[in-house]
Amino acid sequence: YAKTTSNWTNFATSSDGWVELPGPNNSLPIRCQPLIGAKTCRIRLVLSWNSFSGDQTKGTNKDLDLILTDDTLNILVRSQLVQSEVVTGEGQTQYPRETIVAELPAGQYFVRIKNRSLNFSHQDQLRLVGHGDGLSFQYTSPDESVLNPADNPKVLSVGAFDTEKTSRSIQLGKPDLLAPSIFEFNNGLQFAGSSNAAVIVTAAAALIMSDGQKWNLEKLKIHLAGSPLANDFLSARQLGIVPAHGNCFEIVSIGPQPPYLEIVRAQGGVFVQTTEGLKLAVPVDPIRLAGGARRASPTDIVATTPRGWMTLPRNQSLSLPGTWVEVFAVTADLPLCRNPFLWDALRPNPSKTTPRLRLTP
To answer: How do residues 114-134 score in pLDDT, each as one tens digit?
Structure first.
């Protein structure tokens, strides 16, 4: 999980070897604004790129350096591991990743990327993620925040369904699974996030695979998706569904509709205005209303149509047919501006439906 993410595809490299980023002097401007009572921002920057190999023993030969400068382009910190297919000495790595950790006073800084190997193609993708209180990027990609190595297509990536502290990629259809993540201690402290969810799913996978059968990734994914741990329910914010105005969804009064829409309304659905037009909001995961339909990915669109329920991949350039309406669940992070009568009764009780692990420190 990262608070701030920037992504680039089809990027170019200048004649002096700098990756051409959108900011001045081929940079990404970032800003540190310490929280009240703090004097600095403690930040972590991770650069990764899509150089994946089917052979776990083979690394990448595509080599980048990550550099952090002050506002006059003086270098403060650099990460310059040498990416290599085979590691033969210190300072080398097989992995397409560079990391910077720094503590910065308030001010503006610039991130720059040096292309050492000069062997990238237009199909390559870069991802820079940042974490730290008070840190902000000028250019961000909130819908593409899955970190390396979870963006590897051959990795089973796990997110958390009970917190916003989880990454997503609409382009990649990641994470593959969503699971509970709340760890609750006897002293009342709670911790949640995708790291916890991954631990829980890993334990479940180990139990499943202990039966002696041969398991491949797809078979394991399907089996886990059918377990009580799995939950394909992403919030509106995680799906990129945003109210047309303000921080809540306004209910739109609409007269009688065709039967396939009235069925959803009879189950608590209300029309709301979003930045993408009218959608139907419901108090529960819409897949529970969809009569046997299944998502292939947590980011899939769930739509009601004249021919019945449909699920299809979410694509920012996709336009649904005029008679189709997307149905999504409203959660506390982006609520309705006013709850319809009976919504609280229809919505499941989180204390009964969200597993929590109680731990003794």
So the answer is: 999 999 988 888 889 888 889
